[in-house]
Design goal:
Helices cover 66% and strands 1% of the residues. The protein is built from 14 helices and 2 strands; from the N terminus they run αααααβαααβαααααα. It has a two-stranded antiparallel ribbon. Helix 1 packs across helix 13 and helix 7 packs antiparallel against helix 8.
Length: 318
C-alpha cells in the first residue's frame, strides 16, 4: 500500500507540467491560509486588521437609531444590517491602513517556509492610495479600444466578448495586486535595488497597441500606439508582476482563479487577504528558486526577466 502524499505547503516546488502548475496555483490561497493558521505570529498579525475593522463596524452599527414602530426583532436586524453594510464598504480599507503590516507578514511567511530571511518591502498609506488610483484608471481605460471595437459586432456577440474580456482583465489585475503584495527584500537589499531589477520592456497591454502598416495606415495608427505607451507607463509600477504573469501563465492563472473564489465571498473577502499575501510571497520565492535551478541546468527557463531574477547573493532553500 503506497504512502499518502504529504500535504502541500508554500515551500512545495512549482511543478514542471502545465496542468500541475495550474492546480498548484489554484490551491495556493488555501495553502496560504493553512500556513497563517499554523504559525502563531502570522495568526496574530492576520487577526489585527480584521479585529480593528469589525470593531469599527460594530461601533458604527451601535450609534444608529433603529425604527420604533416595527416588531421586537427589528432592532437586532437593523444593527446587523448596518454593521454588514459598513463591513462591505470598508473592506478595502485595511489594505491601505495596514500596508506596512501586510508587508511584514509577507516577509515573515517566506522566512517561516524556509526560503531564507527576508525584509519587508517599504510601504506607506499614501503610496498605497496612489497605486490604487493608478490601478483604477488603468483597469478602466486600458482595454477601451478593444472593447469599443467589440461593441460593433452584431447579434449580441459584442456584449458576450466584452463581458468575457472584462472578467479576464479584472482577474488579471487581482493577480497583479496579489503578487505586488508579496514583494519582499533580501537581506541588505534596498527598495531602489529591487526597483532596478524591474524589467524595462513595455507591458503586454501596451505592446498590443504598437501596430504598424503602410504609410497612410501607419499615420492613422499613431494615436493607438501613443495610447499603448501611456497605458504601459501607468502600469510601469507593476512591470515585474506583469512579466511574472507572462512567464508563468499556468501558475498565475490558477492562482487568480483561487483568489477569485476566496475574495468574491461578500463581507468575508478581507479575511483572506493575509492568506493571499503569504501565498504570493512564497510563490515569488518558489519562482526565484526555479529560475536559479534553471540557470544551473541551462534550461529554457534560464535568463529570466530581471524582475524575476533573485538579488545577487540571495540564496533560497526549499
Amino acid at each position: 500500500m503506497s504512502a499518502a502524499p504529504e500535504p502541500a505547503t508554500l515551500s512545495t516546488p512549482v511543478p514542471p507540467a502545465r496542468a500541475a502548475r495550474f492546480v498548484y496555483g489554484l490551491r495556493l490561497p488555501l495553502v496560504g491560509l493553512r500556513v497563517i493558521l499554523r504559525d502563531r505570529e502570522l495568526r496574530s498579525d492576520a487577526i489585527l486588521p480584521v479585529a480593528c475593522l469589525i470593531a469599527w463596524c460594530a461601533m458604527w452599527a451601535w450609534i444608529g437609531t433603529p425604527p420604533e414602530d416595527d416588531r421586537w426583532f427589528s432592532a437586532p436586524l437593523f444593527y446587523l444590517a448596518r454593521g454588514y453594510a459598513a463591513l462591505l464598504a470598508l473592506a478595502p480599507i485595511p489594505s491601505f491602513l495596514f500596508a506596512r503590516h501586510y508587508a511584514r507578514m509577507a516577509a515573515r511567511a517566506r522566512t517561516v517556509e524556509g526560503m531564507g530571511p527576508r525584509d519587508p518591502f517599504p510601504r506607506s498609506f499614501i503610496g498605497a492610495q496612489r497605486n490604487a488610483l493608478r490601478k483604477i484608471v488603468l483597469i478602466s481605460v486600458g482595454l477601451a479600444p478593444v472593447l469599443l471595437l467589440a461593441r460593433l459586432l452584431p447579434w449580441g456577440l459584442g456584449s458576450a466578448i466584452i463581458a468575457t474580456i472584462g472578467a479576464g482583465w479584472t482577474l488579471h489585475w487581482m493577480v497583479v495586486s496579489a503578487l505586488d503584495g508579496g514583494r519582499t527584500l533580501g537581506p541588505g537589499e534596498t527598495a531602489k535595488q529591487a526597483a532596478a531589477r524591474q524589467e524595462q520592456h513595455m507591458a503586454w497591454f501596451g505592446r498590443m497597441y504598437q501596430l504598424r502598416g503602410k504609410s497612410s495606415v501607419d499615420d492613422a495608427l499613431a494615436p493607438l500606439r501613443l495610447f499603448g505607451r501611456l497605458t504601459a507607463r501607468l502600469g510601469q509600477k507593476w512591470t515585474g508582476e506583469l512579466a511574472l504573469i507572462e512567464r508563468y501563465p499556468a501558475v498565475t492563472g490558477g492562482f487568480g482563479l483561487g483568489i477569485a473564489v476566496m475574495l468574491f465571498v461578500p463581507g468575508l473577502n478581507f479575511l483572506f487577504r493575509p492568506a493571499v499575501i503569504a501565498a504570493s510571497a512564497c510563490l515569488r520565492g518558489q519562482i526565484e528558486t526555479n529560475v536559479e535551478r534553471a540557470l544551473e541546468r541551462g534550461s529554457s527557463e534560464a535568463a529570466p526577466p530581471p524582475a524575476l531574477a533573485p538579488p545577487d547573493g540571495a540564496g533560497h532553500t526549499t
